[in-house]
Amino acid sequence: MFNTIKKIIKYPNLTQNYPRIPLPVLPKTGKPVIDMEKCTGCGECLRRCPSQAIVRDEKTDALGINLDTCVFCTLCEEICPAGAIEMTNQIELAENLRTELRSSTLVVKEDQEIAMPYEAICDKLVKQIGKTFGRSLNIREVDAGSCNGCDYEINALNNPFNDVERLGMHFVASPRHADMLLVTGTASRNMQLALIKTYNATPDPKLVVAVGACACSGGIFRDSYATSNGIDGIVPVDVYIPGCPPRPQAILYGILKAIEKG
Amino acid sequence: MTVIEINKQLIKKFPDEMIKTIKDDGNELYVEINSDKIREFSGYINQEMGYSLIAMFANDETPLIGKYAIYYVFADRVSGVLLTVKTAIEPQQMTFKSIARKVHAAARYEREIKDLFGLNPVGHPNPKRLVFHSNWPRDTFPLRKAYDLKQQPEFANEKINFTKVISEGVYEIPVGPVHAGIIEPGHFRFSVAGEPIINLEAQLYFVHKGIEKMCEGESIEKGLFVAERISGDESFTNSYSYCQAIEKIAGVKIPERAEYIRVIFAELERLTSHLGDLGGICLDVAYGFAAYQFRMMRGWVYAIADELCGMRFLRGVNRLGGVRKDFVAGKEASLIGQLKKIRSELEETETIIKSNSLFIDRVENTGILSARIAADLNAVGPPARAVGIGWDVRKSFPNSAYNQLIFAIPEHYNGDVNCRMNVKIEECYQAIDLMLAAIDSMPGGSIREAIITVKPYQFAFGITEAPRGENIHWVMTGENNTIYRYKIRTPSFCNWPVLCHAVKGNLVPDFPLINKSFNLSYAGNDL
Q: What is the pTM of this model?
């Protein structure tokens, strides 16, 4: 008992105060960006991208990256002969519309940058949760065919470092108790019925957040006999969180985004 | 025994049935035999020679030889040899002799082959569908070459039958596929009388994505990225196995420094996984303090991974022929410091939880697995080591770096949750020690021997010790550096039926605890 108390005192608080305090500098495994000035349009990345996330715009012939499909494998950065592709450390990529994540000519749109400081986002979040769901947000996670990477990252939201309960968010055991479904995976053939049933069992008003490349677009598992290309063909989606898997903070950012809408 | 000695022995014993020796190099021996004699042959190898059946898969070779082929893979774990027996099946025949009554581990593989290839195992004790649920038409077999990957057949509507236990007071509890916790989907059907579980049937394959089919015809480079995404928390070990297979086919020996870097990441993944399991075991007995200790340590390990390679799940570390970057160079001191901190924290936490009698009472003698069942069904990894089946790929089939490092396999014999937990705790220390030793004895030099082209229609195994146990991948190359067939057999595939046996006689509320002590991957099983 004495040892237990000693340990509790030793580590009183490990929680990172995201989003109130911005993230520390992250490794560069976030959003890939093509520098159009350096890009020669050779198409090496387009041919070799494992999830075919890199596309060529038919009109302008320029290359772009569909973030909803990207698996953030860093191969394009490695193989680009002109050194035009660079991974950035930006992970707050969640969007309400899937088209916002997709690229026709250029990867980055200026208006995608976050305009508001984190303090303001956090304050707003607390207000929004209060307004929409009466102070707390209850979340049900549904794995609809993921590799379990996203699920471990959602699990990590509950660990001492992230601890989302501090923001009034709880993970609940039944969809009947939930305000939000966090869906991971490609909606595999065998899970489609279960996903629809879970959605129908969740009381209105409800939010659906697609977590990870598979849930957004099918990711690397697109176009198979047993998968569907993103869950939005099965249930309506409010927010898409790209990443393979997205970091816990990226998921948290996406949840915030969903509440803003709700 | 060496490959040549085994081959001689088989020829002596079965002079007429052996059609030919296909390949014998290094530690892999392939023989082709007459498919009518497979029962005698496999029975002899399994029971007389004592080799375990560790994988079994079919391959549609109709474009090549006009026949289907079935491969039976046996492992001689003492001398580190993989013996593969190939039989050819005529397309008009479409059946093969089931060996499941002789070699019990074959039962699930044969059901898998039946679902994916439409080859019928004759004499199978329980040929129930495995991969496909009630929604898949019975006459469609996706792993045949003629089947187009993108073709999605109409949803069929059949009923799934579960094993019924009928008696007074016996009732069923259906659980899943959407569970109460944040875990993967699977359906469990418990037959229960009062409190104890009489029978458990697990309906898996909810996350079946068709990974094996998806890789066929794709470049060997893309195969690597798919392999990383087979099972999220085993990203590294799966890509490690895949790389080994391709490197063997290409005949490339990777630089020694790369081997050591791979050892460090493989052990890092093991540490992450085991700390998560230990936290889960504590959480499932409502021991919150200990669970948070383990989660905190797991968070520290993730921070190490982040620092080394920028990916929490160790993706993008492996490349064909080596590793992407020299991830360890210049970070040795910080790595050693963090590992030592985790080690001492783990020691202190272990002392605390092991002196808590309430906790030990829950885990001791819960979910006992019998050694006989474990051996018959080829249980692998920590659950097998907890009943005294002390095989470890790192010892049986070592790469050059593991050969140089000294470590002992944990020995436990009771096969309960407590033993599995102890195996995992000991392996955590071992993983830390191995990493420290690897950093210490790591040679300098290059980190990658690029592989650009591979010969068509070559095949090889990649075999590694995943956190959950023995992990085997088999790759056959096609034209233009593509994959012809990719068979993945993760440890979870072997251990799921074992888990269903281990829970019998236990209370339903102990199921989550027993399940956590196995911690099997659904994605790794379902593919």
A: 0.90
